[in-house]
Fold these 4 entries.
Entry 1:
Amino acid sequence: MTLGEIKKSLLAAAWFMFLTFPVMVIKVNTIQKTVEWHWERLLYVAVGGFVFSFLWRYFLRRKQGGRRSAAPVETDEPEAVPAFQRLIHDRRFSMPALVVLGLFVLVFPYLFSMYQVNIMTTALIYVVTGLGLNVVVGVAGLLHLGYAAFYAVGAYTYALLNLHFGVSFWLALPIGAALGSVFAVILGFPVLRLRGDYLAIVTLGFGEIIRLVLENWNDFSYGPSGIANIPRPKFLWFDFSLEQSAVFIYFLMLAMVLLTVFVTNRLKDSRIGRAWIALREDEVACQAMGIDIARTKLSAFVMGSAWAGMAGVVFAAKTTFINPASFTLWESIVILCIVVLGGMGSILGVILGALVLILLPEYLRAFSEYRMLIFGVVLVVMMVFRPGGILSEVRRTYQFKEGLSKDGSLS
Amino acid sequence: MQPILEIRNLCMDFGGLRAIDTLDLHIGQGEIVALIGPNGAGKTTVFNCLTGIYKPTGGEMLARSPKSQEARRLNGLKPNQVTENGLARTFQNIRLFGSMTVLENIMIGRHCRTSAGIGGAIVRNRATREEEKRIVQDSYDVLKKIGLARYVNEYAKNLPYGAQRRLEIARAMATDPFLLLLDEPAAGMNPQETDELNELIIGIREEEGITIFLIEHDMKLVMSLSDRIYVVDYGKKIAEGRPEEIKRNPAVIKAYLGEEVDA
């Protein structure tokens, strides 16, 4: 601990004190119309900032030190696989872990309160949308900022079809997915020639168009007041109570997550999936190698958006009320955060990302007004120390051995 | 025999700049033809026009597959359609898929010769599995031919420079071309790597019967390798002929060395 470091940390502490001064120290009591000054909190911030800055530098140094020592070592392995990654791909460990996890999610609704089941269902909805967006952003590398629009398409599909034609939830599910895909094609055609930032702006505009249409076309979507009394899903002839219904939707979402994981995993590891990855790597080379990039981009959009459509239908059925306020840009950003924070392209990472991003703010309610502050700090720390996401993608690559045609084991 | 590639009166304008000016060129089956010229002469632009990256503003480009003998106009085709028609290219600045393995890079090359779709990928039926197996096997065969088999499971970005250049050629070969367009394949190579490249290119011509059209600055390689050479300067063809003729051609010497000015 040198003098210079102490000086640096003192500076950081002073900076923290300055930054948090308005939130931490001044408290306006609106009832008595007085201003309370919590000076003692400034001390906590100073001490916290001082310690935090030391920890920060320590971890940053460790991270860089690790990288430096790893660089000159040339191994035959394509890339060093982190210990945790090795662990999840080791069957002796992953099999029992999967069984325990499976049992836990099965008994979850009977162990915990309705509130817990409900937020978990919401988290699962985000898992499905996150996995869908992962195909577009993580695998095919197309930055998409209007994803909530497809979610809205799904939700309004169910709400409107049910309102006008009495279409049941189960029929609305595939229709929602199909309409999500149709809208993906509609969006896809104009953006096929764009990439990167330009694509992001156009998709952003598209998302806003859908939301504004829903907000202003009163005759069609009932405007900002939304649609209420959307029926919850029924299963055969059972009539669920409110509680049973919540449990049922929980299991339904669980099944949908499994389906999404299965399908996206298989897509990634296929001829189409390889084309998506090649598209992400280098568009010009990809096209020069005979891949029709228009079709490949479109297929990524369609395969990604269908999930949002389906998740939208479940969302409408779960909340029984929808209005355009649920499908703002913020929603798209949250889903994008899930993908980036979880680890672009990594299925397990995206699942973890969704659970962290959706459940964390809920459980942080205990900290009331500091909830979003803590949440923001967690995001910043995550991205500084793990820029690849919680679980950065370690792609399954083809391990070729002469005589053996294909072995899809981990590299 | 009819040429497999014919370029007539090709023009390419960028605004007011004429990058290619009424270029005529033809390549016969089994030839190794080089396109040379000073920097900025428009060589890569010719490749970009041929492979559909640029749309030429004038002229005609015809490709005739040696198998079907059927002439196909290349004007207006997209890059992937050109590749499907049997013309494959490499890039001057290496454009590999860095975070894919060497084998996967080649597998991308097989994409346009295979057909499994989204449905097949999800249900993974017998036809899809068979096709995947075939893609892997074919890709490995290509790697063996090019001499990259020992790198099969490496990430492309981790390969040594010379091997990356060869991988570009291997990836182009995987698309089953009849004409291979190589854009400065020897750029940045040391003399030994260049010699190996020389052998490789001759091998591709002899064993696979693939015709080769290359842009190159390494004159030693060009002279020893090519059957015929085209020289362009300021987008215009200034000479064509066998290597010995080109070496002696005064217009070529002038373009490369400049003209003596009488004071």
Note: Chain B has a mean pLDDT of 90.
Entry 2:
Amino acid sequence: MWTRTVNGTALHFYLAGINNQNFLMRDQETGTWWQQITGKAIYGPMRGAALKLVPSDELSFGEWRAEFPSGQVLAPVAKYTKEYDPNWEPDVAKLPVVISFPGTELKSRDVVIGLTIGGSARAYPWETLAKQSPILDRVNGTPLLFVLGPDGKSFRVFVSLIDGHDAEFFLQTDAHSWILLDSLTNSQWNFQGCATSGLAKGRCLDRIPALKDYWFDWRNYHPETTIYKR
Amino acid sequence: MPQNQPEETGRPASGWLWTAFSVCAIGAIALFFIPAFIIRPFTHQTARGLLLAMAVRQRAPLGTLISGIACLALSLALWGTVGRWRKALLVLTLAVVAFSAVMSRLNYFEWMFHPIAGPQFIAQAESKLDSNEMIMSVRFGGDARAYPISQMAYHHVLNDVVGGVPIVATY
């Protein structure tokens, strides 16, 4: 998700093609070609420009509904409802791939969470996250907290610093509650990364933008990426 | 002298017209088909191929117009000099040239995946989405929006304004 204001002009994008299973878009104003995953202008008058990433989440509707009670939902377009595929996840996973990276321990259609900090890219296999959440890691000196939400489907990545100090986080769950505890202040934190009780109450952790993607696509645009291992 | 007879001078002129017609017809057709062939789903695009496809596609609307008009003018000049079969060949070629000129102006990717012209939003209570369905979420100030992935996986691109900020949601 990107802001679409470049050099003071709000651009309007449309689907314009495909590049190794990642789509290309063009803007109506200049006709420039942009790569969807990178937000970069790859051909045309604005070549070299880059869109700014918008902080966004991939959440289950249930989680989102609870977090943003007054939020609005994109309405389905009646004309196209039969085109919407409720099984998009398994169906897309079955589509062929046109680039592959043999020799890496992941398969092309393995789902990863990818992030880049100070030029260092790392991919976190979804399966590992699902098994081990929360995950604590460090990329380019930044301590990170990966956590799967109470629904087991949503995820978020935070900087695991409280007042500039490294903190470890543990998950405490039962059928009715989902609480993160930190080692530094023993406060309770929710999935939004905010402390709800304890010494840190009222504070929120910084968020790190991360992309849920297929391994082949992430690897294609981040050739130097490392893969998280426990 | 035999070289000065009208039949002899007519032939080289007509030959030149045919060559020019072939060049502009191939040019017009290539302007559409080269990028269409390179940028097609489920095939590998090399960096150079992609660059060529974008460069050609960018120039195709004007290029097919100019070469299309040239083809038409040349075929009119040829029309009186040729027989029935060559007339049919001219018409057929002109049809493919016209097709290329039209297709260079149309975004057929949006025939496969229709865009949302004016996105409508509903309160979450009105939404029929299941709790387990995945959405993309964005928030600016007090404005929070959810874009269901089942819908975005079809439309792919959505221009929106959230909390006064123009954004493009992509999937």
Note: Residues 62 and 108 of chain A are 30 Å apart (CA to CA).
Entry 3:
Amino acid sequence: MQYALLFYNPPLESQPAPAREAVVAEMLAEMRAWHEELERAGVFRTMLRLASVQAATSLRRNGDDVLVSDGPFAETKEILGGLALLECADLDEALAWAKRCPLVRIGTVEVRPEFGPPR
Amino acid sequence: MGLDGSREALEAIVRGEAGLVLASLIASFGDFDLAEDALQDAVAAALERWPQGGVPQRPAAWLTVAARRRALDRLRQRTMRADKAEALRASEELRRTEIATQEVDDSVTDERLRLVFTCCHPALSPEARVALTLRTLGGLSTEAVARAFLLPVATLAKRLERAKRKIRDARIPYRVPPESEWARRLDSVLAVLYLIFNEGYSATEAEPAVRRSLCEEAIRLARVLAALLPREGEAHALLALMLLHDARREARFGDDGASVPLDEQDRLRWRCDELFEGLAALRAAASCPGRGAYQVQAAIAAAHVVAPSGADTPWHTIAALYAELEALASSPVVRVNRAVAEGRARGPEAGLALLAALEGGDAARLLADYQPYHATRADLLRRAGRSEEAAAAYRTALDLCRGEPERRFLAGRLAGLGI
């Protein structure tokens, strides 16, 4: 069954540029290593890093119309930075991989199963 | 024994075996709801036939066989559904299960460890863990669990539904976790059992009979857990802690309804059988590797209990144990209890100093509403002869009081100051 791992990170824009770049570089390197482990284990399906929340656009119904506005779904402290899809036998396996994700150190990782009856 | 009496006895037997049978059914069929429905049918059949035919020699085996038959019947019904996909799925499941159950004789393997670890999975909310554990392992009806927590039955039923749905949808595995994870996962199980016990022991709002059944259930499950995990010191320690508390339940309140401090209790009202069992469990814990927080707490309870009289309470030993507990599991609650012990061992000013250290920190906000903190402060100030300050603290504690016995006790102390 597929599990989505959603990465919620604190915004790094508030930090000065050199510190920010160092954190990002470190995270990217560690995420690449994590990705390789997932591939080796055969659980990796896909991973997507999202652009900053400033590039987000939201659509909502407004009467009969659809309103397009700048910004994410909700203004939150932690921001959806990316996601991964893993194929795991059960929640414990998905949680074990999520715990090894480097982003757990700086933010929140939500683990959600795909919709549908268990196969 | 009249018909009513024997029905009660039968229900008690059935409830005692329900957890064992249910755990086994879930293992066979992989479906909580199917297992529960099948068990319910089997229980109804038992309560109908056993009064006439007599209780079988192995009630759990009887119930398991009856429940398995009912479950297979239900699966067959599903195969006759109009919906082809559903029927096909059910058909395959039925074939698989029929083969599996043919291979098993009517013995009942003890799958309760799988059930308890699953019910107490960290992915379930704490309230869900408690409700599910009581319902499945404890065999309590939904109504009984709702009554115990003063919730409408519909609310609790929904909570159970959501928990089972989460287990299904997120695929929380029905298994005992690998030993490498036991330290963390066992914590969750022990916390659930201790919560159930405390709900029965310390809560004051639900009916006494209901609260009593919670304590008994928690102790029973703790015994089962200790038997299933004999090398886990904390499982034995939790059992010890519960028994050592429970043994003193009839000495907790005076004839005037006021609560009585431990060292002033009438020791003749303590239950020896539970004390002995508790101390034996503590010895079992001590013989296991490691020394966890429950073991230290049980050691504190034991220190109180083995003293020949209240006046002989070994406060120095107890203070040292609280210091050890604080290093393992620091919290304002532990610090307040430690202050009590230090106050008796080294004098009230020593206890007050420990409390003062709390007041500056992050915990300060929580302390404002924490009744035992104010009650402890009041007692230490009283012993130090600072009566005006003690009176003020007693009044604050009284304002925060939620139970009548505690209120009467504090009111008595306040009156004794004569201010």
Note: Chain A touches chain B at residues 1, 89-92, 95, 112-113, 118 (CB under 8 Å).
Entry 4:
Amino acid sequence: MAQPCDPTTKMFQAGLLAWILPGAGHWVLGQRKFALVFFLAISFPYLTGVAIGGVKTSVNASANKWLFLAELGVGGYTTGFSMLNRSIGPVKEADALKYISYYPASDVAQIYLAVAGLLNLLAILDALARAQTGGQPVFAHETQGDPSAAPGGGP
Amino acid sequence: MIPALAYIPFINPIDLPSWLRLWTFLPLAFCVALVYRATRAHSTDRLVWRSCITFANIIVGMIVIALGAYGLHAGVLWWSE
């Protein structure tokens, strides 16, 4: 049975939680301020993107699979909005304007959503690095100016 | 039948005016700067200030790229005449 302080377990927890909810990985590592920063800086573009584009156009794997792949960087939100999208069902042509966005709103929504998903990948990697190094960022050795301070030691 | 016409957030899209499209870049660029700076920081002290500097760098960089692309485009048009 894995110990609660096992670094591998901690990394797995942090990575999974960060994928489900932005900032949650840092929260379980005890870095509450970073958690808040990541939560706000990633949730804002994601939710803004869905609000601008509407869930029917913006979180739809069959409409744009590459966008959906980028959105999957924020797994919790994308799963929830994808389920909401399915619950609406097919849109009648007469109701298209109510549910489907067009240029320029759809473009802006796509950019916001893709950037949010990719930013969360960065946040997940940061959470993994901090879980491994006891709270230090992966670039710690650069900011300290000492290569030997790198995680795992330097040359 | 007001509910049928009401706006439901996340379900009904927002009718974004064309002129606003360029300005939506600014908050997104700030979020990118904030996340980037947060991944490189030991603590959250002065994180907002550092993010503002990165944000300014992004904006200046994008303006330079835009001017360069505009100049290249204008140059190609002038050369092809």
Note: Chain A touches chain B through 48 residues (CB under 8 Å).
